[in-house]
């Protein structure tokens, strides 16, 4: 792609901008495109199919230039990956406001989006790609770890020991699956068509071994399961072929899911097209390719439903594969649930979600110190402590050192304030940037994923993420974003992100306290409004006012 070059975030305590908020935005934009972090950095693609950090290289250069010049009372406006304005605001205002991939309802379709994208008028921002807070596969690792722990509980087990999980997709997000399964003591067979994804996950120690073929994968899985040994096995194959094949073989699979990029039919390789021809074929005939991809997804999901009928625990892992399979002609595609209603919603009711932070110094020691701070702040949370210890042992940093853990309302601001103190007193060598995924409790409307099967039927109400972005803007976040189409694809979601910088200043402390209290509180009130008792209890316990309940 024109202008492509290798990008890495600045490190250390020296500023390249006029303040740490601008610097944090600059470093996190650069970090999203670090070759260790991004899946296809040459094309500015960070993860999740075609999720981009900037629209094109000229826009990237212009964003960098504007961030370098931006004053502490100015705000840069980014429209789908391109900088379009600089406004005089105030020191409390975000330094950057971002709107990515948004389209008016009737126009919110992939063909219309692609037409506009081809004209250079928009880009696909996914969730944290276009909002500059992607931290590599670790970002999804804890959520995936939590999900598989919940699956084990659902199966009446303490862990996944003695079970085999079958899944596909070893991309930026899906690549967390093998490690999340082995962290839960299970065995995983993970299919991907792209050999480079398998190699990358092995290199980063997310995946243990690669099998030579289906029989080899199954034999190794059964042997490890019987020995009670955690093992993850990569298999280069097309899931649309191999999942039905394993079902037909009567393979003893206990858990089935999928994280191919099914949300975008051009990012799912149909059966019968060689991996090497993928790019050429989807360019040559996008509509014909879409039809073939959907037909393959229909076969893939039909086999998943077959495993469910055979007694396996089966769930959709947030990639819209059921909806695509339905379009591909398989009417029973929604026979299995999405992972949020099945396992995650009780956490969302408490405002719990993927809290994350990165050390702008680039020094792993800063993350080690923040890990210890989290353990000290929440000494009674054994599950959290287990995660932090395992992450320290098993997670290899990609780009700037970073950490993720799920914290809820009433917890996140305590972590933020502690990190700010640690920057102020020199315990940390540079500021910490604190953000989260858009997949959070109060920041997304996505009827096939985060808001599937809401108790009051409000799945598609998108006022909540918009209020979330507004409240974070009003509370002092460093940058705020509103996106459409992340996770599950164009037309299917609206979501918001926030990132706030702990630079050690008293102003940062005030902002952190407000943002990190209000942001997860949005999750609680959204679930109170939908009638969840767990959320009502969380609001009462944490003193979150609910006007209609006073
Ligand atoms: P990615 O594009 O980086 O990776 C997708 C992988 O699927 C690629 O490696 C590709 O080779 C592989 N693939 C495509 N078609 C295949 C086929 N027929 N058989 C086998 N492999 C195939 O995407 P990602 O970032 O890993 O995200 C994967 C999906 O998960 C996306 O739809 C994304 O929106 C969704 N997602 C889910 C969550 C969640 O929390 N559950 C979070 C973020 C993203």
Automatic annotation (TrEMBL):
Keyword NAD in annotation: yes
Name the cofactor(s): NAD(+)
Q: Where in the cell is it found?
A: Cytoplasm
Keyword Ribonucleoprotein present in the record's keywords: the answer is: no
Record keywords: Cytoplasm, Histidine metabolism, Lyase, NAD
Please name the pathway: Amino-acid degradation; L-histidine degradation into L-glutamate; N-formimidoyl-L-glutamate from L-histidine: step 2/3
Pfam families associated with the record: Urocanase, Urocanase_C, Urocanase_N
Q: How is the cofactor bound?
A: Binds 1 NAD(+) per subunit.
Q: Its biological function? A: Catalyzes the conversion of urocanate to 4-imidazolone-5-propionate.
**Name the UniProt record assigns to this protein:** Urocanate hydratase
According to its UniProt entry, this protein's organism is Agrococcus citreus
Lineage of the species this protein comes from: Bacteria, Bacillati, Actinomycetota, Actinomycetes, Micrococcales
Gene designation: hutU
